[in-house]
Amino acid sequence: APGALLAAAASLARRAANGDKELIFMATGSDANSLSVTNNSLVTLATLGLRRHVMLLADGWQTCEVLRAVLYGPCFWSSRMLRRQPADSITLRKFWDFRFRFYYIKKKYMALLVEGGYAVLQADTDTVWMHDPFRMLRLMRDASLVIMRDVGIANAGVVYARPGSMSALRLLDEVAWRVQLLQNHPEIVARIVPFARPPYYANSDDQSLLNDAIVSAVLRNRTFLGSTARYEGRNKYNPAGPDWASQPEAQAHKEQLRAMWKLQKRSSVVCPWAGAVGPSSRASYVRLPIRGGDAVALAPRSLFAHLPYSAGNAITHLTAARGFAAKVATLRKMAKWDPLGSQVDAPAKVDPGAAEAEQAADAAAAGKWEKNAQEKRNATRLRERIIQREKRNAHTPSRPVGESKRLAHHAKQHKESQLTETPPVGAGGKAGGKKSRGGGGRRMLH
After folding, report:
1. Cβ(263)–Cβ(287) under 8 Å?
2. What is the helix (H) or strand (E) element at residue 160, kind and residue range?
């Protein structure tokens, strides 16, 4: 219903000390395996006192009815959810399941929540939560988007976005738009990829589309090469396609990635829980610049991590454990499988000085990084001045040696005559008159 999304967010969000309205956004399917994994993730959230801040989106009101018996907290569903396969493409023929029903709605609702003023952490349900990630995310103010790193660029399973940046909001909207475009209109591929032939693969996986959206935002040039063109080439599910490596688009894609990585910057942030689990108090991460002086940050491992599991990571994503049985086996090994555990939030651990200490430590580190950055900028300017001077000297015609000596001799004689000249005598017998504009005193350098 109109207004329901933001009303639900207002009832769940946590108001942080810095003013952020923090919200966790998750989605679940209706089958027993999906519900078990979802419940397990919610149990780990409850140990951190974060369960009450989860907006859980189900695939329909029937699933919410099933969850009511075990769920601690509200369940939401959307009439915009896809009920059936929307079009015919190789992707949807081969992979259509509840995940593809959620790809568009998750990204679109995340964009709407951020636009509504919420700091949203969207996470898959096959995650284990060990530390409150918002404690670190609040300190990463140099990027409005913080995304889990993966092979290639990023993983769409754990994405954080804070409000206030139009560039970040456009990127989120771009991903949602691409998903629905390729799910509903696979025929559009013919206009995007010159060598594509039906039946079109029309890849609508949100992760590869997210990666192309990031490249587009960083290079300020919309591209579909990595997420769309690449899959129209020959592969296991599209054997009739042309060889991708021999296409000029393949080389162009490589060049785009090289150009993007050349623009990366490195930053570091305080790891608030590091003292309890390890010696390092800072975590390094990569920033990819986008418009408006903003950036996409690829989260450090201590914030969003793949397997193997470590107690020092805030969130561990089980994406590498393929299938329900593999996930359960991995969680048992970690001693984190408890789908019927309590979802009642544990009391929050209050440390009055913790937030101030984290802010102070990060401010000190930021000052050090800024000093280093300034030194680099100064060195760059100096090199540029030297180069410019050398260019000017190269274009200035040289005088003959004899001519240079003659001019230097005349300049010396002129200077000596100025030093021995008697100044005019004014009334009263004192040296008077105004000083020459070229005489002593201070000059203003323009």
Report:
1. no
2. strand 154-161
Burial 293-304 (b: 16+ CB within 10 A, else e): ebbbbbbbbbbb
42 Cβ neighbours under 8 A, 6+ residues apart? 51, 54, 56, 71, 72, 73, 343
Phi, psi of 440 (to 5 degrees): -70, -160
CB 123 within 8 A of CB 158: yes
In the structure encoding, which two tokens stand for residue 62, read together? Answer: 């029937």
Residues 6+ apart with CB under 8 A from 261: none
- CB atoms < 10 A from the CB of 273, how many? 20
Of 259, 195, 261, 249, which Cα lies nearest the Cα of 224? 249
Task: Please name which of 52, 14, 175, 36 lies closest in space to residue 105, comparing C-alpha atoms.
Answer: 175
Report the C-alpha gap between 400 and 90 in whole angstroms. 78
Identify whether the C-beta of residue 315 lies closer than 8 Å to the C-beta of residue 158. Answer: yes
**285 backbone dihedrals φ, ψ, rounded to 5°:** -150, 165
| pLDDT string in tens for the chain (446-residue length) | 789 999 999 999 999 998 999 999 999 999 999 999 999 999 999 999 999 999 999 999 888 988 887 777 899 999 888 889 999 999 999 999 988 999 999 999 999 999 999 999 999 999 999 999 999 999 999 999 999 999 999 999 999 999 999 999 999 999 999 999 999 999 999 999 999 999 999 999 999 999 999 999 999 999 999 999 999 999 999 999 999 999 999 999 999 999 999 999 999 999 999 875 555 689 999 999 999 999 999 999 999 999 999 999 999 999 999 999 999 999 999 999 999 999 999 986 654 445 555 556 556 555 655 566 577 678 778 888 888 887 777 766 554 555 556 666 666 665 555 554 444 444 444 444 444 444 444 333 33
The answer to whether residues 146 and 114 touch, using CB atoms and an 8 Å cutoff, is no
pTM more than 0.70: yes
Whole-angstrom distance, CA of residue 365 vs CA of residue 377 = 18
Task: Specify whether the backbone of 429 is left (phi greater than 0), alpha (psi in -120 to 50) or beta.
Answer: left
